[in-house]
Specification:
The chain is mainly α. Helix content is 41%, strand content 10%. It has a three-stranded parallel beta sheet, covered by helices on one side. Helix 1 links the parallel strand 1 and strand 2. Helix 3 crosses helix 4. The relative contact order is 0.16.
Length: 111
């Protein structure tokens, strides 16, 4: 925890920026400003491409812990495979799938 985060309530802000397109990620402005982020400890954006949206970049610059949407997408796929195919996954395998998916998305859709 940074000194600027001490004394802040445990608040997480979630933002799904629909302007970010999966096929053609475009830089867009953040829907939330520093005035709101300064009162939070963490930020989540459901968008998975680009991995670092303007919102997450701004949140990181404000000292917040940030989480992008790739983990959510992969976990949805894992849940579907468990439900439909009876598959099971170790946490370490899921973490590796998330890392691999982030790397492949970055490779395929370089800005």
């Amino acid at each position: 925890m940074t000194s600027s985060q001490k004394g802040k309530p445990s608040t997480t802000i979630s933002c799904s920026t629909p302007q970010a397109s999966v096929c053609t990620p475009k830089p867009v402005s953040s829907a939330v400003g520093e005035d709101v982020l300064s009162r939070c400890k963490a930020a989540f954006d459901a968008v998975y491409n680009p991995g670092k949206t303007k919102f997450l970049t701004l949140a990181a610059n404000c000292g917040l812990k940030t989480v992008g949407g790739m983990g959510m997408l992969v976990c949805q796929a894992v849940a579907a495979h468990e439900l439909w195919y009876g598959a099971s996954f170790k946490d370490s395998d899921i973490e590796q799938l998330i890392c691999d998916a982030e790397a492949e998305t970055a490779r395929l859709f370089r800005a």
